[in-house]
Amino acid sequence: MTDIRLFGYSDPLAAKLTQTVDFKISAEGTTEASIEIVRLVHGDYNPKGPGFIEEPITTDLPKCIGVKRQYTQNGSFARVTDEHALLSPKGAFSVFAFIWPSLPGKARQTIMGSWNVNISKGYGLGINPEGRLEFWVGDGKNVDQVTADIPLVPKVWVLAGASYDPVTGEARLIQINVQNAWNSHIGPVTPYDHNCHVVETLRVKPAASEGDFYLAGAQEHNPERGNFVSLLYNGKIDRSGIMERALTAADMANIAKGTVPSGALAYWDTTAGYTDQGIGNVIQDTGPHKLDAIGVNRPVRAMTGWNWTGRDDSFRLNPDQYGGVAFHDDALTDCNWETTISWTPPASLRSGVYALKVMAGDHVDRIPVILRPAKPRARIAVQMSTFTYLAYANEHLSFEAQIAQAIVAHTPVISAEDIEYEKLQEFGLSTYDHHTDGAGVCYSSWKRPIINLRPGYRMAGMTFPWALPADLSLLWWLEHAGFDYDLITDHDVHREGLEALSPYKAVINVTHPEYYSEQMLDATENYLTEGGRVLYIGGNGYYWVTATCPDDSSCIEVRKLDVGSRAWQAEAGEGYLANTGERSGLWRSRGRPPQKLVGLGFTAEGMDRSEAFERMPDSFHKRVAWIFEGIGDEELIGEFGLAQGGAAGIELDRYDLALGTPPNTLLVASSCGHTDNYPLVSEEITYAFPGRGGSQDPQVRGDMIFFNTPNDGAVFAAGSIAWSQALPCHGGENNVGTIMRNVLKAFEKDGKLPGSAYTGDEKLWR
Length: 766
Description:
By secondary structure, the protein is mainly beta. An 8-stranded antiparallel sheet has the order 12-11-10-9-16-7-22-21, with no helix packed on it. The protein contains 11 helices and 42 strands.
């Protein structure tokens, strides 16, 4: 029997009702599949909860559709459309580029050229499998090349140049060291000669390849998949160009000193186009023909260049030193698949998480889409963390992260399904992963299958769901408890600001709203000051500075800097977002710790077990006593849960006046008893010393708080990823749900909140 593979994605990931959604499906081992639309109600198979629940939806879609295999172009590169073969000179020519190769010796790589792999036509400046600079030409029958006599050194800047004179047949290959104390991974004190100059007479003259010109790749064709780009380069490329003459060694030496050559046929100035708001995805050609290079799979801009001197850490201060563009052979931001079937959800549907359920043989894939009403309907909005979903999209933490075993306190249990998932490298990486060359991944997009966004998905090595599958526990409980709600997303709030939030009396965050943009922070802050009410019931929220790409809202950008719980760290000088010009890293490092907004901020994470919350003296104050109606004075809150057995765990947030928690905040409950597998987060540690685990450091806890904001607004917060996953336990009737009912019933009503008459009073203890 033929093995069947079915994968797909929706575009967009989140839509308004009546907005058409395109589903893009790839299939192997079958040419047809059954489909239906389902509403995802609960996404956790754990028998302590309601189990996996989906509801079929009646639509006019066919029950069976044709499917085919669709191919994905992995790797980032830049394409120059060269319809008139201007970049295939008939006479003498030269090519040059400043390069910082990160993986020389991995395989053949193309730095720049018009090379056609299939027919061996054109020319290419690249790196051979031995890690040496190489210039090759082909006429469609034969290939000839010039090879450097010394290998390139990883992550060291050099000027790479080649020239060819058809009259003499002479080809020149030059490699010039431009290393300084700042720009490379080794310094000038290393006794290594990076310079090389080779001259040879070639037997072959390059013929026009009749195709496009590429930076960081070469064109290839396969009868089944069609045209694609191969010989992908890993590393940075700074300013590059083509001359219609054979440059001498002296000419190349002048370029290596920073002289811009005159009369270039094309000159891709990687520093052109910078503004205070960043730089786009187009590498501008400042030559006469304006043959701009368009980035594919988001080559990384705002990177230090060959002439970086370390004085400035942002392109906004000195764009001339930020000409580096980083390319990676495994980058992916858009599968660019054809649409298999489209669906326009009717206005009559309720807001919720839906999926196209695709079935063939025993294989099932559920492709999710988050649907928002065309106009607000409910008084409560649930903000789905689509930025965070993308940040973790297709993560490989259990296989690659150093903390994978320590954080769960046992060897991760990897299933056969996890191993198959690990093999799906063609669908791209998360911002918790590393590219082939070790660089951290800073871009993620929904335009690809996201395997861990499926209902029922369990994070590899762990026993509980993460992100969207976990968030369904909250949605199930809201329906169980009789609360009406609309879904909105991070993307909505980022795009619309306060307008997305203001129609609602209360807004609920889901389990893990970790990735936030400035627009989202501003919208939430304005919403609260104008009388809005927020339930922050997640952990590690409002943490990383994140932005979308202006030309592609499906794609987010984040860079991990010097502090924070980070899977990687940006290279020196490369901490600013290319798409907005702002410093990435933690919002805390930018003066906006989450405590200033919702009263709590990240303090610890651990995944061995979760604990309960204990009432604190503030819980008996008349301002908040209503929250605890139906809760005993000594009752532990959340001694149960689908995420490691408690309501306080996985990732925890705490109250801290020193970090901006509003002084009028009441600390109503806290968790305790966490194990030493919950260490204090790194941003809290200025000196490394023992005693920072859960059994030793009082800062390792999850806090529950309440505070009033202007105009009858308020925040209720329970700083724990595990909180919402406790709600479905015991049939949805439990003390975590009791507190949620009390808060939501008060928050969704107009007027003053219960207990507001006692605002400002002295505390009244039991």
